[in-house]
Design brief:
190 residues, alpha/beta, TIM Barrel, seven-stranded parallel β-sheet
Length: 190
């Protein structure tokens, strides 16, 4: 993560994970989320023509675009070339935040509390199985942020072009995150 992306995560504590069956739906869903005020937009490589969506979002005012489901070096390079400011990868490779996925089926907030004990200085992002009901419990368990996929930018809503519903969901998530307790202090070793 660039310093700007990391500061935005520490402030908002949310990353919108954008998935859709068509590039135009992914782009409009991401724009709806950005209009609502969530700045970090992770476009996954499961989106057809994901790089073109990333390129379009890179210049979106108020948005910090990143890439997810990055499985190859070529995908990472393409995402960076398209303007990605963050790629969620391993701490050993120098990542500022570790995405714990799929945390919903791995044990939820209780799982985060268990793994925080041996890894107290690793900033963690909960993703996969996150929703409005467990947003605050994940933050209280020690996550620096929460990645939100279908609970926020549901691909079915994007296909139906119901971007107003996505924008409304984004506002609700952002309000709930802002009311949550301050994030835990992080010790970054670099």
């Amino acid at each position: 993560m660039t310093p700007n992306a990391l500061a935005t995560l520490e402030e908002q504590r949310l990353i919108a994970v954008i998935r859709a069956g068509a590039p135009e739906n992914a782009l409009e869903a991401a724009r709806a989320v950005a209009r609502a005020g969530i700045a970090l937009l992770e476009v996954t490589f499961t989106v057809p023509n994901a790089v073109s969506v990333m390129r379009s979002l890179a210049s979106q005012p108020g948005a910090v675009m990143g890439a997810g489901t990055v499985l190859t070096r070529e995908q990472a390079k393409a995402a960076l070339d398209a303007g990605a400011r963050f790629i969620l990868a391993a701490r050993a490779a120098g990542a500022h935040v570790i995405k714990v996925y799929p945390v919903g089926v791995a044990g939820g907030p209780a799982y985060i509390r268990v793994i925080r004990d041996p890894l107290p200085d690793i900033p963690m992002l909960a993703a996969g199985g996150t929703n409005l009901e467990n947003l605050v419990p994940f933050l209280e368990a020690g996550c620096v942020g929460v990645g939100l996929g279908a609970a926020l930018a549901d691909p079915a809503l994007a296909m139906a072009r119901d971007y107003a519903a996505i924008e409304s969901r984004a506002r609700t998530f952002l309000e709930r995150a802002q009311r949550a307790a301050a994030p835990p202090p992080q010790v970054l070793t670099r």
